[in-house]
Recover the amino acids of this structure.
């Protein structure tokens, strides 16, 4: 990188203002579930730690659909990363995207300079996978980041305003049709939330619109919803959604979408302005690491060390955690699932492991403890598969879902505000937050770039 | 307007999907304090009412500075206008900007068509006044809308991230300097909030930054802060701010600002990336009304009817309320102040007056009841001038300020969430909301335009 290009570049660029100490330096990329749990556990008396993230906040992704459907403020499900970091000395945060790694020089490179590491931990998570379909990437709404949720919220409420002005025309049918692709938790929860809004919120707000015309489709490629859960939970969630009026299509793929017309694999067409794409993710791989990839993820051993190509040896100082890591286990021959609990436990595990290494204690391999899987469909309607074959559904499943999600939210303020909002919505059949604060357009990549460039 | 230009324009454009009834139609432009209080009071069994606003929400402007300084979520201080409207039949909301009025044809015109009125109420409020200085308009941050507050919040936190990366350079001084222009409530409250963040929040978040370098200037053109309040309140607020480290400059004007250098009228220069412009407003005048303007506002009589030019006769069917209206009273020979209570009382008054007219009851002239003025400077520091020469300051003033602001917030959910946030901040010396979700750039006008165009 040619620093002379970046203007007033008169500070020392090669350490990003991180001091040198006698301690080993751990660089961790990504402030998601894995990253913040690692940071919480690592003993910074034993190591210097530098956390990189392109945003200045942690996002509680499982609740993004509630931001998109006006149930929660974005601020309630995000935690400032500097707050996560502030309790520890010799722990640094840098709001920078790591562009590439040089494993020989042991350096991470950013737009504003580079930093040497002793240990590198990759916890960059995953992003939306469009499987190469540029049309879908261009026209569909993803739901992985706060900006996505805000765009989708603006889109929804702009459509309803528009539908009211177009009352009595055919266009209204298209405006009030929503197609959600992907029957995993995000798709199921999004479809449920839209169906609830249709029933409880929208008819009050838009009394002139005929909401019997509003249609919510949920498309899933395999033969059941929530394929990672038990068959009975799949079945319950489908029944819940259908009872709420969602048109669930199993064994169905979306072949194409041009912004107006969804084409299904059976040739059927659906006219809609809004496709929510929750059909797949791919890992945020970092350039410059010559590693063994499995399903597009960094293949790691039982200590979360990244395998070199050929799968014979590992990098002793490069680790991967969470969605960006691929780890076998006896129970999971196809790799651990890309879910928050795996990331949380791996971050926690690796933090503790590093502390043990520094004290020359033995390090045990990572062992994933499945505490269960849950998804909520709506008011009093949720499914939960817990260990020992315990399954909840209905009201108890729903209360369990709320309790667990509150527990994992960062910070007491967020827990409290989310709880107040949920209680409010429950008692009032309402969703409080319906602001259109930006035009619905897919400008978030540009947004990210502009934020980063502003730091130059 | 040539409707053929706007694409699929196959609905009836000339009534914006508003049905015709035997009742008189009141069109009200603007969902600010005046607008929503009018809507609350008007009896829609007696009139059909159509409310226009370019946003789909009401903004509680007195708390915008708390959004800008990470104390509150934007959603907590905004109320969806459709929610305000939903309790009444024959009350319609249209998220459209009224572009001009044709007083002869009695029609309001929007991008998507026009609508006839029997009565027109203008409650469009005010916007930032740069007094013709394009440089300032281009480079300073206003604080009148939610988008402004979000831009400013992003700006602040981006600057701190940048300052940390630039540690040890002269640039840091400029990044950590904040100039607020205008010593009214917004300026005083903004300066106080920044000084509080400097003391209680930022040093924890950015332990590497030397915050003794952070400077907050507050410039006021006349010889005291809060010129609309009592001299003792002016004096208290100045002392509070100075005790918190704010550099208060009275009798001082900003001559120019190029995005880097503030030039004062005494020739002094201050280097800064952030100027908050709270130095003046001008009314949002609507085109097409041939009216008597006073100080750029629609001159109205004691019934809030708009004067025709020459000040001899009034329009019998055109009214103006709040910041866009200029109304004399004995106590206020220079016109009622442009503050929320005037707008609230006028909206309330006019709604009731219309109800009386329909029942052939006598209508009394508007009488402004001054319930007092308040401003908060920080934790336990506020000033309040109440009627009967009662003045509070310090802790009691501050509690009074909080209580009154909570009372006027729209909706119980907002009151509750704001209260929880304030309690949290008070107990923890914290500000919870520090997300950078968009680049700081002045793109809001474009944003407004894009939102409106999306409705076509």
């Amino acid at each position: 990188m040619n620093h002379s290009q970046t203007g007033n570049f008169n500070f020392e660029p090669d350490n990003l203002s991180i001091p040198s100490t006698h301690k080993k330096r751990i660089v961790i990329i990504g402030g998601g579930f894995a990253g913040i749990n690692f940071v919480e556990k690592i003993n910074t008396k034993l190591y210097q730690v530098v956390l990189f993230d392109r945003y200045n906040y942690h996002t509680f992704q499982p609740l993004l659909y509630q931001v998109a459907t006006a149930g929660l403020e974005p601020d309630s499900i995000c935690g400032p990363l500097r707050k996560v970091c502030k309790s520890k000395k010799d722990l640094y945060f840098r709001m920078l995207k790591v562009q590439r790694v040089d494993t020989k020089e042991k350096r991470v490179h950013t737009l504003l300079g580079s930093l040497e590491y002793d240990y590198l931990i990759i916890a960059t998570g995953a992003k939306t996978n469009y499987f190469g379909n540029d049309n879908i990437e261009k026209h569909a709404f993803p739901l992985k980041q706060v900006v996505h949720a805000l765009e989708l919220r603006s889109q929804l409420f702009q459509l309803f305003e528009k539908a009211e002005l177009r009352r009595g025309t055919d266009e209204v049918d298209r405006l009030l049709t929503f197609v959600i692709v992907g029957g995993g938790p995000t798709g199921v929860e999004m479809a449920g939330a839209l169906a609830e809004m249709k029933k409880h919120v929208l008819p009050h707000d838009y009394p002139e619109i005929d909401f019997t015309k509003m249609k919510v489709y949920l498309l899933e490629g395999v033969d059941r919803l929530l394929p990672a859960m038990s068959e009975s939970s799949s079945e319950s969630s489908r029944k819940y959604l259908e009872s709420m009026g969602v048109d669930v299509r199993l064994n169905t793929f979306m072949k194409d979408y041009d912004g107006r017309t969804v084409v299904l694999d059976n040739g059927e067409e659906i006219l809609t302005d809004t496709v929510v794409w929750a059909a797949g993710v791919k890992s945020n791989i970092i350039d410059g690491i010559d590693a063994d990839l499995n399903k597009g993820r960094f293949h790691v051993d039982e200590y979360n060390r990244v395998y070199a190509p050929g799968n014979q040896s590992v990098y002793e100082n490069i680790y991967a955690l969470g969605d960006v890591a691929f780890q076998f286990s006896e129970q999971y021959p196809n790799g651990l699932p890309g879910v928050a609990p795996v990331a949380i436990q791996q971050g926690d595990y690796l933090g503790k492991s590093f502390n043990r290494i520094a004290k020359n204690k033995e390090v045990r391999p990572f062992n994933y403890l499945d505490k269960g899987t849950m998804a909520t469909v709506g008011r009093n309607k949720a499914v939960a598969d817990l260990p020992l074959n315990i399954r909840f559904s209905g009201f108890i499943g729903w209360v369990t879902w709320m309790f667990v999600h509150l527990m994992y939210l960062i910070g007491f303020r967020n827990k409290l505000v989310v709880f107040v909002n949920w209680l409010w919505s429950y008692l009032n059949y309402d969703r409080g937050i319906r602001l259109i604060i930006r035009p619905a357009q897919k400008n978030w990549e540009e947004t990210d770039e502009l934020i980063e460039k502003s730091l130059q």
About this structure: The domain at 25-128+282-358 of chain B is CATH 3.50.50.60 (FAD/NAD(P)-binding domain).
